[in-house]
Amino acid sequence: MNQLQIGPYAVRHARPEDVPGARSVMLDTFYREFDYGYVPRWHSDVVDIEAAYLAHPRHTLVVAALGTEVVGTTAVHSRGPAHPPHPARLAEQYPSGSTAQLLRVYVRPEHRRHGLARAMVGAACAFVAEVPGYERIYLHTNVDIPGAEGFWRSLATEVCDARTTGEHGGYGTVHFEIPVPVPSLARG
């Protein structure tokens, strides 16, 4: 994918010049939306985005940009869910290496409702489909964020609702899977 235009927005794989803007989107999300800020054991990839996503052949960072401003991010990493904080059975079901984890799917609030998250996730899933060795796409989301649960239910299949199992420390976490090969993510 070179670049996808959605109105005035460009959705593309990140470039080195996008790193500061992408980091800003991620950190602002941690502090303003999640209310817990930067947690090193959960967010270490944000410190060195270039090594985590740009330099690794099985990882990627997709951005949505309005001109030179990064307004959204979506990442792919080859690690499964960590236990703790996630349930042990999920760590076993989605092992690192063969699992592509979608993470950092964030769009600045003032740029939402333009299809940017769907386009970035589509680009990330297309990347996964082209990388040998991935068997599944896994993600988890905080459903306390308005719109998050409905968005993921429109694209993925729930595999665990931690709200009903009491796992993950009381956070509104729901875990999902998208199969590989990736189905069309277009609305239909």
Can you tell me about this structure?
By secondary structure, the chain is an alpha+beta fold. It is 30% helix and 28% strand. The chain has helices spanning 19-33, 40-43, 49-54, 88-93, 116-130, 148-153, 162-165; strands at residues 4-6, 9-13, 60-66, 69-77, 99-107, 136-142, 157-161, 173-179. Strands 1-2-3-4-5-6-8-7 form an 8-stranded mixed sheet, with helices on both faces. The longest helix has 15 residues, at 19-33. The model has no long low-confidence stretch (mean pLDDT 91).
How does the SSE layout of this entry go?
Blueprint: E1 4-6, E2 9-13, H1 19-33, H2 40-43, H3 49-54, E3 60-66, E4 69-77, H4 88-93, E5 99-107, H5 116-130, E6 136-142, H6 148-153, E7 157-161, H7 162-165, E8 173-179
Strand content bin: 25-35%
Helical fraction equals 25-40%
The N- to C-terminal Cα distance equals 22 Å
H/E element order: EEHHHEEHEHEHEHE
Largest sheet: 8 strands, mixed
Counting DSSP E segments of at least 2 residues, the number of strands comes to 8
Strand order of the largest sheet: 1-2-3-4-5-6-8-7
Low-confidence stretches: none
> What's the number of helices?
7
Q: Tell me the structural class.
A: alpha+beta
Shape from CA axes?
globular
**What is the average of the pLDDT values?**
91
Report the radius of gyration as a whole number of Å: 15 Å
